Amino acid sequence: MNPPIAYNGLELVYRRPVTLTDTPMHYCPGCSHGVVHKLLMEVIDEMGIQSETIGVAPVGCSVFAYNYMNIDMQEAAHGRASAVATGIKRMLPHRYVFSYQGDGDLAAIGTAETIHTVNRGENILIVFINNAIYGMTGGQMAPTTLPGMVTSTTPYGRDVATMGHPLKITELVARLPGAAFVTRQAVHTPTAVRKAKKAIRSAFEYQRSRLGTSFIEIVSNCPSGWKMTPLEGNEWMEKNMFPAYPLGDLKIPSATKPDAKVKEEV
Amino acid sequence: MNMQQSEQPRLMKGNEALAEAAIRAGLQGYFGYPITPQSEILEYLAAELPKRGGVVLQAESELAAINMIYGASGAGARVMTSSSSPGISLMQEGLSYMASAQLPCLVVNINRGGPGLGTIQPSQGDYFQATKGGGHGDYRLIVLAPASVQEMADLVFEGFRLAEKYRNPALILADGALGQMMEKVVLPPEGTLPMVDKPWATTGKPEWRERNIITSLFIQPEKMEEVNLQLQAKYQQLQKEVRHEAFEVEDADILVVAYGLTARIAQKAIELAREQGLKVGLLRPITLYPFPSDVIARYTRTATAVLVVELNSGQMVEDVRLAVNGRRPVHFKGRMGGVIITPEEILEELVSLAKEYRVAEEKLEV
Known about the structure:
The structure holds two protein chains of two kinds.
Chain A (H helix, E strand, L loop, with lengths): L5 E2 L2 E2 L21 H15 L5 E5 L7 H4 L3 E4 L5 H11 L4 E7 H7 L1 H9 L5 E6 L2 E2 L5 E2 L18 H4 L5 H6 L4 E8 L3 H19 L4 E7 L3 H4 L3 H15 L3 E4 L15
Parallel strand pairs in A: 3-4, 3-5, 5-6, 6-10, 9-10
Antiparallel strand pairs in A: 1-2, 7-8, 9-11
Chain B lengths: L1 H5 L3 E4 H11 L4 E4 L6 H10 L6 E4 L3 H13 L4 E5 L1 H6 L1 H10 L3 E7 L15 H5 L10 E3 L4 H18 L2 E7 H5 L1 E4 L27 E2 L6 H18 L5 E4 L6 E4 L2 H16 L4 E6 L1 E3 L3 H7 L5 E6 L5 H9 L5 E5 L8 H14 L2 H7 L1
Parallel strand pairs in B: 2-3, 2-4, 4-5, 5-7, 6-7, 11-12, 11-14, 14-15
Antiparallel strand pairs in B: 1-8, 6-13, 10-12
């Protein structure tokens, strides 16, 4: 962790983490991605593991994540981020590895990779951004789209009788023995941001202790895809998304004190 | 002492010789999925590679396997996967990404009869898929075609060497018979293929260098074209790696072109034809990409006709025709669907061609 720097007797209380590049983000106003990127990079910065961390970007809105994250990164094919992360982690077991995936990537086209990666207990972190829509391609139905929700491919609302139900993949992976830490967070308020950051920090520490897969869902908004202002989006999310995807820990490592464990050779 | 032991000939299955050779070539990671007729590769490596310091993972699908290979190769490791035709089809997306991201790896296709689920019997039906790219976009794989258990072992070293030299996936295109049959093999010694420096690998960004990014996404068309031009320049460079074997070609009236198992069968047919006084020779491409076009063009200057023999409906014959460029007639003989052609069938074709072009009569007149 970098020490605070004093300027003319003033204490520096905030700066951009060295793990974030100075590139302006392409995300829409009000989008959660920027906040989650920052939290991830802050944790890596604070833990001093920039040189030990490799990230995997998905196909989706965060396809350009590597433009913003100042760490070594790989861009995966659509849905395959956790398989790519598995390949990296197996060859570099002492490195920290995370994948960063949206709902279409993780819970539709990549469902098999997600389930099997967690079931193997790959010692990685999977960050799952769930905004119930395909943002990058222009607002189509996602596996997590809510019943009745209008998207560009469900113009009359999602009819679960013909289009299936919202896939609660986080509940699914929480049941797998390989999952060490499964939690659902949000970043729409300062309190939520602090809790989400704490969860990310815990996940990296569990990875250091080699406990298995950590899986963090961030329930997110998508003002552009939802055709709302950022404020309306957050309100809609609280009212409609949180009942379907309740926030909180689904699985925490039992009887572990990750902080007590010494970091092994890297 | 190990070296001396390794130089003793052994009797091995093609798949097992290939797997053992891969370990000796410094294989660090293998990710694969079972499929007949190549499962012995996964089985052999599962038993042997972890003991010798490598990683083996049986993936949930070929899709997952090739993407694990992507990640592992991007992390700088020497990696391999293997499958057979239907599984190789599933890997095409990943191979396209790897070619674009310029990631080296070795892929083994123990070709079986298709299309579809097909059969488990030997075939060469995947020639187009292997040599023309296979997935989406403008790219090529380096394609090596063994014709014996010995070459199943030797070409593993060549595959890794070329893949890493050119930062491109390499593919060994064999078939079910080469994978399953047992032959004498002298295994290449361990430690003869040095690890190469991979400064582009994502191993964790130290302070002294910029971050490394492995990607195939170049959203600006000008940038994407630039990457394409780089790839094409690389494929031009690759042309100097062409390898072939020639048998009785110097005086050949009829030049047979065949690769892999078919070349072995054709060689027997040529021996039988020579006994009947026909001047027939064999040109066997060992690299299918780069393709030995110049060599074929050279040998066909003196030949009267060309016969291409394959275990498919006629795929490599198109590349031979491009090489011959209309200067000589090019004929084709093949069997499909997992049926192996016999030397007698090829001989019959050779005799018929000799009559058609009157090369046998000229021979009798001498």
